[in-house]
Q: What sequence folds into this?
């Protein structure tokens, strides 16, 4: 039996009041949802609360899921993303991108900071093994704007395809691709700067 | 810039192909044009390098484990039930008991979930109660089950014994007994009268040449078969006189 069919059957059983089926769904998706929340919110405690909220909302609105309209994972991710956006708005954390592309001077024709910095950092894949490095990447991710952050999380951490990401974010596929590229580039710039400060 | 054309490719086109190039799905002449443009263009070249570096940084992030009590908390918050599963760490080898349980769980899960519902428990309880009453009325004791003889003759004998006990019990019930006696009485009343047996008795008397007195019949024929025979005293009972002689020693 295919995974989609298994999930559809679990959802039907869940709607019929089967507690075991609901537990199966929770077991299947809790890790994935927790990871999205953790990478977006930045802290484990927030991620835990948000994951719980996602499942509570999912449990209440499971009737509204239509198998014909899309994959269950896309539906779950949409709920997660909506809650994350709400959480971001509520917490009023203005974590807009500290973009290195923004000019450091008031002159519009001033050179972007990224162009001033020479890329003498060691190759990325030689340093990523250490825990400290992972922490640096995680912290840099928190400095991206929510639009860019959610796009790169869904693409590079959750391996979703562009079409599904476009469905979740409710934007055209071209916009998704553009956000992903901008997010990746901005993250790289932030990390290069951080590395220079550390080293 | 977006409108510039270098090596047969505009920056906007380069930007559009950037994802395909990073996903390694870009091939052929388009890939060559893309790479040539990246080498020459001062904007697109660094953009490609940064996007590639950023993608690798992100890919280096491991998937984190959710807290062990998260599932428990979610289940409590949503259904109020606690998890029925044993938490298994990813990578930890499951025992064969867990493996078998895992295979059987999807098969028995619907039955188990239904059995947890109060109405099913109520029905099951009533069925068990009825069955236990029936067995006790039939004289079956659970302690005797282990000593049961499964030979065909023994089974047959047990069957007849049990049937006999049930019939006996049934017939001894006062209500059944009353109904049966009423039915018998009703049959007797409605049945056509039998020919008088006097002639036959007379013949019998005539035939009796033995000279012996006939045995007395104690039955009271005037009474019904099912009517009780009561002892009675006449209104003027005979006076009985008794004389007692004392013996002086």
A:
């Amino acid at each position: 039996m295919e995974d989609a069919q298994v999930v559809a059957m679990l959802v039907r059983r869940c709607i019929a009041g089967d507690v075991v089926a609901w537990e199966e769904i929770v077991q299947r998706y809790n890790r994935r949802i927790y990871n999205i929340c953790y990478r977006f919110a930045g802290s484990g405690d927030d991620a835990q609360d948000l994951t719980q909220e996602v499942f509570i909302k999912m449990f209440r609105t499971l009737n509204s899921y239509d198998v014909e309209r899309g994959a269950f994972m896309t539906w779950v991710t949409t709920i997660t993303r909506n809650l994350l956006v709400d959480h971001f708005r509520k917490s009023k954390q203005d974590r807009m991108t500290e973009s290195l592309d923004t000019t450091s001077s008031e002159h519009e024709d001033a050179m972007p900071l990224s162009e001033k910095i020479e890329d003498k950092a060691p190759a990325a894949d030689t340093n990523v093994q250490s825990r400290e490095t992972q922490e640096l990447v995680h912290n840099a991710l928190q400095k991206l704007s929510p639009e860019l952050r959610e796009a790169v999380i869904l693409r590079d951490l959750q391996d979703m395809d562009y079409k599904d990401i476009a469905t979740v974010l409710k934007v055209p596929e071209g916009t998704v691709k553009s956000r992903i590229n901008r997010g990746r580039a901005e993250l790289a710039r932030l990390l290069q700067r951080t590395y220079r400060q550390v080293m | 810039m977006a409108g510039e054309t270098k090596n047969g490719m505009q920056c906007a086109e380069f930007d559009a192909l950037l994802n395909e190039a990073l996903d390694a799905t870009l091939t052929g002449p388009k890939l060559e044009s893309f790479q040539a443009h990246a080498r020459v263009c001062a904007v697109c070249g660094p953009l490609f390098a940064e996007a590639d570096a950023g993608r690798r940084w992100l890919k280096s992030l491991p998937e984190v484990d959710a807290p062990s009590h998260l599932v428990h908390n979610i289940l409590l918050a949503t259904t109020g039930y606690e998890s029925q599963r044993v938490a298994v760490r990813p990578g930890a080898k499951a025992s064969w008991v867990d493996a078998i349980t895992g295979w059987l769980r999807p098969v028995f899960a619907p039955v188990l979930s239904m059995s947890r519902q109060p109405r099913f428990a109520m029905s099951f309880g009533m069925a068990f109660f009825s069955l236990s009453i029936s067995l006790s009325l039939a004289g079956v004791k659970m302690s005797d089950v282990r000593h049961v003889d499964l030979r065909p003759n023994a089974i047959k004998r047990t069957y007849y014994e049990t049937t006999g006990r049930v019939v006996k019990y049934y017939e001894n019930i006062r209500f059944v007994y009353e109904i049966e006696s009423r039915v018998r009485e009703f049959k007797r009343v409605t049945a056509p009268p039998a020919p008088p047996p006097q002639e036959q008795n007379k013949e019998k008397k005539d035939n009796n040449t033995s000279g012996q007195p006939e045995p007395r019949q104690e039955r009271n024929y005037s009474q019904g078969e099912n009517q009780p025979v009561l002892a009675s005293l006449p209104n003027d009972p005979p006076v009985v006189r008794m004389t007692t002689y004392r013996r002086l020693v």
